[in-house]
Design a protein that fits this description.
single chain, alpha/beta, Rossmann fold, Alpha-Beta Plaits, 2 domains, 10 helices, binds adenosine-5'-triphosphate, binds magnesium ion
């Protein structure tokens, strides 16, 4: 069984009358890229801040590396955080900024470590220009380098692609995948499911502070895959006909009245013909396709709205 290195139970944060996160329950296993998806104000940053040890929960528990943590526990030190603004000194270089953080951590062998990190995130280690002149993408990559300074076991990235151009997004995506391949567990938030789906292995949908659904990439893609939804009287009698007469093998029986067919080589009318020839009732047959964003909007009760 995979090892859960983050587990939250009933995690809640109440800001006066505003309930930002309510009863969040989930586990993140070692090596996962866990995507937290939610629209503006859904509670993503608040949840990540609690897991990163930046704010105290109002209620609930956080278990890190199999230990229950309360307050400023050392287990929080094993988390590398990039939440909201990285807060660099604008008039210093990337190296100088990382050096200041490294000094505050009391790190030894600073130069070598910083050079390695700058190289890892794709920044020129000898670049003396001030961070204020960096592009947004470069600043984000520097933010990730800063989060990695303490050699964490988990990286928490809050909307790391927000405001980046397509090239910047692609660079961050490659960096996330590279870190993950090297063994890093990553918790990442976004409000764009399509983008998150290019890296995440599992997702939690958060809406108005509540986790609505936890879904794996395979399940999500299956939900959004083109399919024919076939409603019948008795699926168990129909399955042999689909398999033998139409060579349909990629299907899922949801109930004895509902079959989802993912094989795309067969037309709906061929399915109807075979079933009618065999005197089987067909209650409905529908082609179904939805995008990841439609799926997300449907789950958060905003189906039909456009997404920008
Ligand atoms: N320090 C705070 N005091 C009071 N309310 C807060 C505080 N921080 C967040 N909130 C409220 O909690 C809710 C969740 O905010 P949060 O920043 O966690 O959402 P988010 O999903 O990160 O949104 P965004 O996509 O805009 O970053 C919002 O209604 C927000 O106004
Ligand atoms: Mg936020």
């Amino acid at each position: 069984m995979s090892e859960a290195i983050i587990e939250v139970n009933q995690l809640t944060k109440q800001f006066k009358s505003n309930r930002a996160v309510y009863n969040a329950d989930f586990k993140i296993s070692k090596g996962e890229i866990f995507g937290l998806i939610g629209k503006n104000g859904a509670g993503k940053s608040t949840l990540l801040k609690m897991i990163g040890g930046l704010i105290h929960p109002s209620k609930g528990e956080i278990h890190l590396f199999d230990h229950t943590v309360k307050g400023n526990h050392t287990y929080f030190e094993r988390m590398g955080l990039l939440i909201e603004n990285p807060g660099f000194f604008p008039n210093y270089s990337a190296y100088k900024n990382l050096e200041l953080i490294a000094i505050s951590y009391g790190l030894k062998n600073r130069k070598k470590h910083i050079f390695e990190l700058l190289e890892l995130v794709g920044l020129d280690k000898l670049n003396k220009s001030k961070v204020k002149n960096y592009s947004m993408g470069m600043k984000q990559r520097l933010g990730i380098a800063a989060a990695l300074l303490g050699s964490p076991d988990v990286l928490i990235l809050d909307e790391p692609i927000n405001g980046l151009d397509p090239q910047g997004i692609s660079e961050i995506r490659k960096l996330i995948l590279k870190l993950n391949i090297a063994g890093m567990t990553i918790l990442i938030s976004s409000h764009i499911l399509e983008e998150l789906s290019k890296v995440a292995t599992k997702y939690a949908i958060i809406h108005e502070g509540e986790i609505l659904e936890i879904i794996s990439t395979e399940e999500l893609l299956l939900q959004c895959e083109e399919r024919v939804e076939l409603e019948v009287d008795e699926a168990n009698i129909i399955i042999p006909l689909l398999e033998n007469d139409l060579n349909i093998n990629n299907y899922k029986v949801l109930t004895n009245q509902m079959i989802h067919i993912y094989d795309t080589h067969v037309e709906n009318k061929q399915i109807i013909n075979v079933l009618v020839e065999n005197k089987m009732a067909v209650h409905s047959i529908t082609k179904y396709k939805q995008s990841l964003e439609q799926y997300f909007l449907q789950r958060t009760g905003r189906e039909g709205e456009s997404f920008d």
